[in-house]
Amino acid sequence: MANDFTRFAAVAAKLAREHGPRLAAQVVNSPPVRAGREAITQAVTQTVNQALGLESPAEPKEFTPGRPVTRTSTPTELMARGVFYAPQLDGQADPGEVVWTWVEFEETTGPNAGQGKDRPVLVVGRSVTSLLGLMLSSQERHQGDPAWIGIGSGPWDAEHRPSWVRLDRVLDVPEDGIRREGAVLDRRRFESVAQRLREDYGWT
């Protein structure tokens, strides 16, 4: 009996050495575990926001007279630079944060000329005078569009709808014109956006 147990223990130890790391990697990278990590990240973010007194994003607000407006955008490849994840809820907005700004519509003629909308924007960098941001949208028509990338839902949308990030235009966002709600995109999803910027638009 003792010999049988010894042989069984030896076989079990060998299997653990040979297959344990692979099985562990499969479990860690499985969809349920990834979904659980994302849910925990969102819950922690919301808890931190509440502790810091940062309110959840409300419905987009009307334009406030005197508030600087985001009216300039540039093809993303012309703004190529290094992109890195560095959100810090301090005095300045940093890459990885989602902020709100009034964005003018692209139409220069017609009934929408000069009009705009309060929109969430993902900060991906900054210039000397302003933030560099990518516009977010909850419109499902962007699914499958190569100029957009899906990032799922987050605290920047009051209805927790899935969102997409526009990749082909970079907004020049006046920092004095943003509204910060304490929303932060987690590192994994930010890196998926950054990777597309590197692969398709020459960022580093």
From TrEMBL:
A molecular function (GO) held by this record is: DNA binding
Question: What superkingdom does the record give?
Answer: Bacteria
A Pfam family: PemK_toxin
Q: By its UniProt entry, which InterPro entries does this protein fall under? A: PemK-like
Q: What is this protein called?
A: PemK-like, MazF-like toxin of type II toxin-antitoxin system
Source species of the chain: Tsukamurella pulmonis
